[in-house]
Amino acid sequence: MSNKSCTVEFDGACKGNPGKGGAGAVIRNARGDVVARVNKPLGFTTNNVAEYEGLIVGIEKATEMGYKEIHARGDSQLVCKQVDGSWKVGSSNLFEPSRRVNDLVGGLDEFDISHVPREYNTEADQEANKAAYG
């Protein structure tokens, strides 16, 4: 990994599903040090939309910081599989966030996404919960 490379750990939180939601991400440099934390309250949403928004705010922040190679990690299998093209986006409420992710990654030199178990995504989860519940 070069100095243009980072890892974006993302998550979404939703109380009720649908309910009050939040998105969060943690950005790590090539050495694995946390270089940014970002979160965004979403208001009334679904859990899957919140997960997508976590990825979006993470990619936006990393891009803003000058990163061109992004390795995304999240505990939402649905988002990971839809973004990597393994699964079709079937839900109409996910068309827009999916398109936004595709637009964002289109401008990168390199992008990949992988699913990780929830216990390996605790810092992004904390950011999402902070945004959703204060």
UniProtKB/TrEMBL annotation:
Checking SUPFAM superfamilies in the record gives: Ribonuclease H-like
GO molecular function (one):
RNA-DNA hybrid ribonuclease activity
InterPro entries tied to this protein: RNaseH-like_sf, RNaseH_domain, RNaseH_sf
- Judging by the UniProt lineage, the source's domain of life is Eukaryota
Q: Gene3D superfamilies, from UniProt? A: Ribonuclease H-like superfamily/Ribonuclease H
Q: Where is the RNase H type-1 domain?
A: 2-133
Q: Name one Pfam family in it.
A: RVT_3
Give the matching PANTHER family: RIBONUCLEASE H, RNASE H TYPE-1 DOMAIN-CONTAINING PROTEIN
Q: What is this protein called?
A: RNase H type-1 domain-containing protein
Species of the source: Dendrobium catenatum
